[in-house]
Structure formats: C-alpha cells, structure tokens
C-alpha cells in the first residue's frame, strides 16, 4: 500500500488545528451533556437516571446476546441451515441426518441432506436468512475458513496467515504478523473480515484504518514509527522550509543526538526547531534523544 504524493502535504499547523478541533468537539459534547441533563427538572432527575441506566442495560444485553451459546453438539457456531431436500431448518447437516434418517422414520422417507446443495443459512441470533455464496474456503495453514475465493489469496507460512495474491512476492515476512490486534481499532486481525494492508515495515493494519491515518496526516507506523509510504518529496519540502527558516544565533551551532525511525541510525546533527534530518537516509522521521 502506498499513497500518491499529491495527497501528502506538510501542514505545520495541523497539530494545532487538530487540537483546536478536539477542544471544540469537547466543548460541544459538554454543552450537549449540559443541555441533556438541563432538560430534566429536579423532580424528574431520578427518572432520567433510571432511563439512562435502562439504556445502558439494553446495550449490555445486546452485546452479550448469544454469548457462549452454540447451535448443536456437532459444531460451535451460531447459524442454522435450510435443507434443500425437505426445505426445513436444522442446526447442521448431522442434525438433519439424525432426524430424517433413523429407524423412527418411514423407510421411504429416510434421506441424507445433499450437503453440496445447501445455499441458505439462518443467523441463530437475529433470524436473518441469507445466501451462502460468499466464496468460502478452508485454509489448512490458518486452520479456519475464510471468504473471498481461494484463488484470490495465498497462505504465507512464515507470517502464518492468508494475504491477497497481490502481495505474494512483495510483502516483508514477519512471524505471526496478523496474530495481534489492529494498532488503530484494536480488532484481532487474524479473524477480521476487513481488508488488511501490510506496511513496508512488515506490520499489518486494516486498510480503512490506514486511510483514516492518512486523513489525519499520520504517515508513520503506529507500532515502530517507520514511514508507511515514500516520503522523499515531503523531505524535499522540509529542506526548503528549513533553508528559509534560519535559527537564532544562540542556536545556530547547537548539536543534538537523534535516532532515525526509518533506518535506526543514531547521529549527532545540528538542531532546528522544525525537524532534524538523518544524515544516513535523508529522512526527517527522527526523534531527538539528547541535547
């Protein structure tokens, strides 16, 4: 995944803008809360509190719905199937066969379900009936079933997960790369159904979360701080800004120690208030460690 440099801009005041926006949002939230509680008279304040507790209880009940409840003794899942042979609903094919192919059923009516013809599944929690045609496939390496078509994915044995076929010869291998939470939204990536992107450093992140980072002018990996795209044009703009912004005389010869987040080189460089450049890889993605 890489970004077009037309979308990358230097915004010295971006942090201030974000901070101001956050303050404004906090103030708006505070006003909203005051208005919400202000609408309750002292006589009805107790009723408002009870209503709020009731809403919280309903939300908790919704989150806990179906927790540790599974359809049958054969499979740990929360869906049922519609049998194409008799148009009845069962927890699984084994449940169907036990009910429709036993000594208590007329021999002429006994039958097994044609498992390959099952095309409808029903959610055990909400009752929604839906198609099964999501191009499911079982990955022996992952040990679970995935969707999207087996021809569109490959299993990387070193990373221990399935990636898009487009990344087959272009991703850096990191052991257990997807066996952790997304560093932005904290969803477990290995079982996630959202698109996942492999960063140049080898760490993984949801594609949508990476886009959200870009929208907030964040171009460094949340885990290791390495750049997530080619920033060379941005560094050129930093060169121009620094050349046009000389430091006051007391700071012109000030030297500081830095660590480059991109190449890991430790250096002693001249201090500048805007940024400090790595002499090894020419990156401004550095942090001051001393001085």
TrEMBL record:
Which segments constitute the CHY-type domain?
65-144
Q: Which ranges carry the CTCHY-type domain? A: 118-181
Identify the Gene3D superfamilies for this entry. 2.20.28.10, Zinc/RING finger domain, C3HC4 (zinc finger)
Q: Tell me the Gene Ontology biological-process terms attached to this UniProt entry.
A: protein ubiquitination; ubiquitin-dependent protein catabolic process
In the record, what terms sit under GO molecular function? ubiquitin protein ligase activity; zinc ion binding
Task: Report keywords, A-Z.
Answer: Metal-binding, Zinc, Zinc-finger
Q: Does the keyword Metal-binding apply?
A: yes
Q: Where is the RING-type domain?
A: 182-225
PROSITE patterns, alphabetized: ZF_CHY, ZF_CTCHY, ZF_RING_2
Pfam families reported in the protein's UniProt record:
zf-CHY (PF05495), zf-RING_2 (PF13639), zinc_ribbon_6 (PF14599)
Q: Give GO cellular component annotations, separated by semicolons.
A: nucleus
List the protein's name.
Leucine-rich repeat family protein
Q: Which organism is it from?
A: Hibiscus syriacus (Rose of Sharon)
Its organism's taxonomic lineage begins at: Eukaryota, Viridiplantae, Streptophyta, Embryophyta, Tracheophyta
């Amino acid at each position: 995944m890489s970004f077009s440099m037309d979308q990358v801009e230097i915004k010295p005041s971006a942090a201030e803008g974000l901070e101001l926006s956050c303050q404004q949002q906090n103030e708006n939230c505070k006003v909203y809360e005051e208005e919400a509680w202000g609408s309750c008279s002292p006589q009805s304040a107790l009723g408002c509190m009870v209503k709020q507790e009731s809403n919280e209880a309903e939300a908790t009940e919704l989150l806990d719905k179906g927790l540790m409840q599974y359809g049958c003794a054969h499979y740990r899942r929360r869906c049922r199937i519609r049998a194409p042979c008799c148009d009845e609903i069962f927890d699984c094919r084994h449940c169907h066969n036990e009910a429709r192919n036993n000594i208590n059923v007329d021999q002429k009516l006994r039958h097994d379900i044609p498992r390959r013809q099952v095309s409808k599944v029903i959610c055990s929690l909400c009752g929604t009936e839906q198609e099964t045609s999501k191009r499911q496939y079982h990955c022996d390496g992952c040990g679970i079933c995935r969707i999207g078509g087996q021809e569109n994915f490959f299993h990387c044995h070193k990373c221990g997960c399935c990636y898009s076929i487009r990344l087959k010869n272009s991703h850096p291998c990191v052991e257990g790369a997807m066996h952790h939470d997304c560093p932005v939204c904290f969803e477990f990536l290995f079982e996630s159904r959202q698109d996942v992107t492999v960063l140049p450093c080898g760490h993984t992140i949801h594609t949508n979360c990476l886009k959200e980072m870009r929208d907030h002018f964040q171009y460094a990996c949340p885990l290791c701080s390495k750049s997530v795209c080619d920033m060379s044009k941005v560094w050129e703009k930093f060169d121009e800004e620094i050349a046009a912004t000389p430091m006051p005389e007391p700071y012109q010869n000030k030297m500081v120690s830095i660590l480059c987040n991109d190449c890991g080189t430790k250096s002693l460089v001249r201090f500048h208030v805007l940024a400090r450049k790595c002499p090894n890889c020419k990156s401004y993605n550095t942090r001051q460690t001393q001085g």
